[in-house]
Amino acid sequence: MKAKTIDRIMTGVIVGVTILIIAVLAGLIGYLLVRGLRHISFDFLFSPPQTIRAGGGIGPQLFNSLFLLVLTMIITIPLGLGAGIYMSEYAKPNRLTAFIRLIVEVLSSFPSIVVGLFGLLVIVNKFGLGFSLFSGAMALTVFNLPLMVRITEQSLRGVPREQKEAGLALGLSRWRTITSVLMPVAIPSIVTGTILAAGRVFGEAAALLFTAGMSSPRLNFSDWNPLHHTSPLNPFRPAETLAVHIWKINSEGLAPDAAQIAAGASAVLVITVLLFNLGARWLGRVLYRKLTASK
Amino acid sequence: MNLPESRSTADPAPPQTGKIAKHHLEEWRGKAYVYLCVLLLVVIIFSIVVFIASRGLTPFISQGVSIKEMLFGLKWAPEDDTPVFGALPFLVGSFSTSLIAALIAAPLGICASIFMTEIMPKTGKSVLQPAIELLAGIPSVVYGFVGLSVIVPFLRHTFPGQGVGIMAGAIVLSVMILPTITSIATDALRSLPAGLKEGSYALGATRWQTIARIILPTTMPALLTGVVLGIARAFGEALAVQMVIGNAPHIPHSLFESATTLTSIITLSMGNTTTGSLHNNALWSLALILLIMTFLFVFIVRLLERRVKRS
């Protein structure tokens, strides 16, 4: 009898903890949306920020975040795919592979601030790129690469062995088997993983403080020549992203409505991450159906 | 073709040689690309270590700061006439926030994973798992913002002190590392052979007895792996902690008083110091400590994983 009572109590405790976790999440999202949505308007999303007056927006920051995300993914995806293919298809089970695996693990557990500092030391100062979108993209690549490698490797490993053997038996080269037999099967989970990784990049700030910089020059949104200084598309200009902006106005914001701006910007950030999450699942399912003829 | 050394030269028929050479060329190209990517990865990590170590070691080697002073000194006054670099307050801040965060998050995360695997797998998969994934996706600055506008005022009203401090940092971090601990614990519990559990149930054990005496002891190393990874993440987290910890460079007397961590002092001061100055280099030393801690955490995780494999 006693054992059963304890069992019931402990089950209650575990269920209680679970409800607590869900409540924390619901409270968190609810708080952000309730406080933030009030402040989000067309004007807020597209107008430039104000330093000391109220009524500033987050237009350039939002654009910078998206642009930086695109730049980062352009660099990360090919490198991550390559290294991931090596890890799952070419790596022989020996000391060297174990060492590379260790390296990927270490790289993925580096604090993002350390990656940012490395970016400051090497990319910003040594390569002379200065505080720029491009430096930020390279730092984020370092930060994101291990994740991308792991996603690719796991997706390729998930492909049934027979498919690969069939490709090789047909006389295709190993590379051809990878690109035309394994990849189509693996793509849905690679895409899902990549979008989730993109969500992480979108919200990252610590690695960007000292690489992409904490200021945004006045942008001229009618000038789309990437070589001009004030053009939004110029990758060699300093750029403050949305996440960095939230941090900055919380720690040194002078505008009287800093708290509201932080709330609004946080809500935008969280909504974007939510969209990334949902989009990743949806796209993964759609691609899986399209590419593999299964239901 | 420009691949004369390929094995296809042994082939007698010339048209076929072209075909096979193309086949080899394709393979060779792919392989070269893949190896290049991996080489880049290796180069990146080595340059991170080399560059940060070279800057971080300068104060000890050529600028007369002793390692003992840095690790155990209580006073951090880099801009004084005789600058002092005692990083102990930051070490205390970093360790206490991440350990308290793990103390809060570990029971919660393990309970959540038991719920997902043993108690209500269906609800777990459809409600709790997405919730945990969502928690993992929320950016750290957002956690910092919520911590600053909800947790800090709450602590200020409930406990004596300013609200900011180690406890506020630990609470924010505990929510941030909850997903790490939960997902690793869940994987561990799911991979447990069903026979073990069934054996226990067949002996008449209740569910809790099975969980407490069979499941948790068997998966303990894996659960600890999750906790260590959580601590590692908490230790390296910069902005969320910086926003709620108050940033006073001394060891606080209570958990509710302003303190500083390694990451937050780096975040705050790195931008205001000139490259090459002693103050700047001392900050790089702190970064080097962070780096060494990362290696240590990876090492501990490896040790634990070896135990998982053996059992």
Automatic annotation (TrEMBL), chain A:
Q: Which UniProt keywords apply?
A: Cell membrane, Membrane, Transmembrane, Transmembrane helix, Transport
State the membrane topology.
Answer: Multi-pass membrane protein
Instruction: Check the UniProt entry and state the signal peptide residues, or none.
Output: none
- Domain ABC transmembrane type-1, first and last residues per copy: 62-280
The answer to whether UniProt assigns keyword Transmembrane to this entry is: yes
Zinc-finger as a keyword of this entry, yes or no, is: no
Q: Where are the transmembrane segments?
A: 12-34, 66-87, 99-123, 129-147, 181-202, 258-280
Q: Name one GO molecular function term.
A: phosphate transmembrane transporter activity
What Gene Ontology cellular component terms go with this record? plasma membrane
> Where is the protein situated, by its record's location annotation?
Cell membrane
Q: Which GO terms describe its biological process?
A: phosphate ion transmembrane transport
Family, as annotated: Belongs to the binding-protein-dependent transport system permease family. CysTW subfamily.
**Protein name, UniProt field:** Phosphate transport system permease protein PstA
Q: What gene name is given for the protein in this entry?
A: pstA
Automatic annotation (TrEMBL), chain B:
What membrane topology is given? Multi-pass membrane protein
One GO BP annotation of this record: phosphate ion transport
Where found in the cell? Cell membrane
InterPro entries this protein is in?
MetI-like (IPR000515), MetI-like_sf (IPR035906), Phosphate_PstC (IPR011864), Phosphate_Transport_Permease (IPR051124)
Keywords, A to Z?
Answer: Cell membrane, Membrane, Phosphate transport, Transmembrane, Transmembrane helix, Transport
Every copy of the ABC transmembrane type-1 domain together lies at 91-301
What are the transmembrane regions?
Answer: 32-53, 99-119, 131-154, 166-189, 210-232, 282-304
Q: Which GO terms describe its cellular component?
A: plasma membrane
Q: What is its main location?
A: membrane
Q: Which superkingdom?
A: Bacteria
* One term of GO molecular function: phosphate transmembrane transporter activity
Please give the family membership noted in the entry.
Belongs to the binding-protein-dependent transport system permease family. CysTW subfamily.
Its annotated function is as follows: Part of the binding-protein-dependent transport system for phosphate; probably responsible for the translocation of the substrate across the membrane.
- Name under which the protein is recorded: Phosphate transport system permease protein
Record the organism: Cohnella nanjingensis
Q: Which gene encodes it?
A: pstC
